[in-house]
Design brief:
228 residues, mainly alpha, two-stranded antiparallel sheet, 11 helices, 68% helix
Length: 228
């Protein structure tokens, strides 16, 4: 059974929308809590719980004796905001994919240089799982496992964390990005040259293959979202 949304969940989503649309201006103070609670038709307790979530997400900041302010997230925020931003406006994926393409190529190139024999074997095994998947969702998840393994094989922990961050950015719209994963064998064939180059230790070819792969898949995914 799917969990039911609470009033805090609903309010949190509405506050996200109002902040990201500019209804509550970036850098500006919010009205007093009593006024905000009346505006949204909730108790102050509910409002405080929702505020707590937005504070944790980095969309709000509060100072004793001053009040609660909309954080200038465009200037001060981090990549952990990407899932929220994508959920509000999927067009963020255009810029995310641009980063994904350049970072992904660097990761593949470095993995070709740094991967251990154990990591190469893992990549081959994970690639095989892509072709063995039985649904678009399984193919997509298997492909994500390959990217995470490439990040680890780069021997750079920051690259591994960046991979996780970029993959998490897709989460709000992942079910709408299934275009490249409807055919398991085709997905395998597109990704195989990347893994072949990495396992062969060919850094330059891995960089080129990863760029081509990422460009091909992002094009299909953006078309599926109606973004070109």
């Amino acid at each position: 059974m799917l969990p039911r949304e609470t009033i805090v969940d609903v309010l949190e989503k509405q506050l996200h929308k109002d902040i990201l649309s500019g209804r509550h201006a970036s850098g500006g103070l919010l009205p007093p809590e009593r006024e905000m609670a009346q505006h949204y038709g909730v108790t102050r307790t509910t409002l405080k719980h929702a505020f707590g979530r937005l504070l944790q997400a980095g969309l709000l900041e509060t100072r004793h004796g001053v009040g609660t302010r909309v954080r200038d997230y465009a200037r001060l925020g981090g990549a952990d905001l990407l899932p929220i931003l994508v959920k509000h406006d999927p067009r963020w994926l255009v810029e995310i994919f641009e980063v994904r393409r350049s970072v992904g190529a660097l990761i593949a190139s470095r993995a070709a240089e740094k991967a251990t024999s154990v990591q190469r074997a893992e990549l081959i095994e994970l690639l095989a799982a892509v072709s063995a998947s039985e649904s678009p969702e399984e193919v997509q998840l298997a492909e994500m496992d390959v990217h995470r393994a490439l990040g680890r094989a780069s021997s750079n922990r920051v690259y591994a964390l960046l991979t996780n961050t970029l993959l998490s950015a897709y989460t709000p719209v992942r079910d709408r990005l299934a275009g490249p994963f409807t055919d398991a064998r085709a997905a395998y064939d597109r990704l195989a040259p990347v893994i072949a180059a990495v396992t062969a230790g060919d850094s330059a070819t891995a960089h080129t293959a990863a760029t081509e792969y990422l460009m091909a898949t992002e094009r299909v995914m953006l078309e599926g979202l109606g973004i070109v």
